[in-house]
Amino acid sequence: MAAAGSAGPEPMPSYAQLVQRGWGSALAAARGCADCGWGLARRGLAEHAHLAPPELLLLALGALGWTVLRSAATSRLFRPLAKRCRLQPRDAAKMPESAWKFLFYLGAWSYSTYLLFGTDYPFFHDPPSVFYDWKTGMAVPRDIAVAYLLQGSFYGHSIYATLYLDAWRKDSVVMLVHHVVTLVLIVSSYAFRYHKVGILVLFLHDISDVQLEFTKLNVYFKSRGGAHHRLHALAADLGCLSFCLSWFWFRLYWFPLKVLYATSYCSLRSVPDIPFYFFFNVLLLLLTLMNLYWFLVSGRPQCLPTWPSSDACPVPVPVPEEPSRCRPFSHGSSERATLGKGQRTCGRSRQRSGGAGLSFHLCLPPTVHRGFCCQSADGPGAELKDAEYDTQRPRAPSPAKLRSR
After folding, report:
1. Range of 383's domain?
2. Are 166 and 293 contained in the same domain?
3. 200 and 346 share a domain?
4. pLDDT digits (tens, 9 = 90+) for 46-103
5. Is 189 found in the same domain as 319?
6. Are 331 and 362 in contact (CB under 8 A)?
7. pTM, rounded to two decimals
8. Assuming Cys at both sites, which of 38, 225, 232, 363 could form a disulfide with 218, CB separation 3.0 to 4.6 Å?
9. Where are the beta strands (DSSP E) in 73-218?
10. Total structural domains within the chain
11. DSSP code, position 228
């Protein structure tokens, strides 16, 4: 089959061709497997799996190293940076997680991009070539082995981080399943020497994580120090758009038509008795379904940073007409309006004060200051969040005008 690849890359199929050819190949493989079962699986593991104990130990040490490095970076870099930039309390609590993930995924995706486009590997432009010269126990190139070690150890760390370090969200269970499936795919594809297709899978997935964490960071930084920063707001909007486009293009278009087509159809043409055909294709199909789940179920076009694993979207909340409960203060005033228990107000959150109260930088009637969240001070959203659609900060009227009212 290597000679077949010399005629040029095979054209990328359509979705209909993927379903027709992939399903047909799977049915043919199932009918031709007379001794499928645990016995065949045990023989396949003994004959084709090549994973030495030192490699597993190195993977475990790498996961531990990522955990220690994250703890050090959070305490010595990310939290001091959030404090110095005067982020809102709830944003300061979430910023270290996004900063950590952004830096890792940016580095990981840059390295996989180098492997696919800066070397002689033809995997991206000719995905079926990943199986042309496959052999049991074949040597793994050192540059690909480094990528596997970094990614495998990081996803081992990510399972622990999702359970004990990251903020728990409504889709954290799905995210945990995603990390487990990804780790199993990384380890097993290395052991069975499917590392070429593995690099392609990592490249097609990491780019969306880079854009997601970049967008979330700009959402956290756009309202800080009592001010609204237009540059971060614009970057967050552009990040939302690019994240949406990349998620569909990389994960829902290229991934099934390049990776699933190669593993479900082309693999059997190159290696008719390829081991663990169903195991790998089921896991890759599960990965595709999770990508589709986040796209259709968790995705909200008006608030893309919530998708996946982000937090509540800052959408406008109708503000009740209760100006009498809202003491007016100008932007330049040194005074602070402190909420008592059970009071309601509308305003831009500045910082927490001591005790159960909250301090606010601005507190105006909704006719002047619309679009801000208005919640009870002792409710679940006690630190009120700026939810403006506009990038322009509202101006407070002068004290004389307020007194005239």
Report:
1. 314-405
2. yes
3. no
4. 788 888 899 999 999 999 999 999 999 999 999 999 999 999 999 999 999 999 999 9
5. no
6. yes
7. 0.72
8. 232
9. none
10. 2
11. E
